[in-house]
């Protein structure tokens, strides 16, 4: 019996991770391109489109973009 292959549990975990990071997940670059529209929408238009919800989703998952977001938001508020 081999002990080198992944167990079923490990495979499930791996597949889950892959699904989480699939094509509907935007990249940090795409995120940065759209974060301006997101902030504008939050300030001016209220309900978010699906597209903008993805922005929100991304910065909740991505610590780097969350930091970036907080910096941008602060800059906007100082305008
Ligand atoms: Zn990111």
Average pLDDT, rounded to a whole number, is 82
Broad shape? elongated
Q: How many β strands by DSSP?
A: 0
- Cα end-to-end separation: 66 Å
**Which stretches are poorly predicted, pLDDT < 50 over at least 5 residues?**
none
Rg computed from alpha carbons, rounded to a whole number of angstroms? 18 Å
> In what range is the share of β-strand residues?
under 5%
- Given the helix and strand composition, which structural class is it? mainly alpha
> What kind of sheet is the major sheet?
none
Number of helices: 4
Ligands in the model, by name, code or SMILES, are:
zinc ion
Fraction of helical residues: over 70%
Question: What is the H-and-E element order?
Answer: HHHH
Oligomer: single chain
């Amino acid at each position: 019996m081999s002990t080198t292959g992944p167990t079923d549990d490990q495979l499930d975990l791996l597949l889950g991770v892959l699904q989480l990071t699939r094509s509907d997940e935007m990249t940090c670059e795409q995120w940065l391109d759209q974060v301006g529209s997101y902030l504008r929408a939050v300030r001016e238009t209220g309900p978010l489109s699906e597209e903008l919800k993805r922005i929100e989703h991304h910065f909740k998952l991505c610590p780097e973009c969350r930091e970036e977001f907080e910096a941008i938001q602060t800059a906007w508020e100082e305008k």
